[in-house]
Design goal:
Elements: E1 2-5, E2 10-13, H1 16-30, H2 37-54
Antiparallel strand pairs: 1-2
Helix pairs in contact: 1-2
Length: 76
């Protein structure tokens, strides 16, 4: 894990395996009533980042324009 900060922001760089482990720990902790909103927010951001890391869907080119592939028609 690497943390860098400047005047306006803080950047947390973490490998996927460590992020997943940290997320599991945060999920356990955020179930407690004394968990802070910051812990819940970090868990949410980590969960979204892990999802996006594993999501391989990419919109095909020209999906919504005139060059889009047409669905086969049952009518000729």
């Amino acid at each position: 894990m690497k943390i860098t900060h400047d005047k306006d922001s803080v950047t947390l760089s973490i490998d996927p395996k460590s992020a997943d482990k940290l997320l599991d720990e945060l999920k356990t902790h955020t179930g407690d009533l004394d968990a802070t909103n910051g812990a819940r927010a970090l868990a949410s951001v980590l969960q979204q980042a892990i999802y996006q890391l594993n999501d391989e869907f990419r919109q095909p080119p020209h999906a919504f324009d005139e060059q889009a592939p047409k669905q086969p028609s049952i009518e000729n």
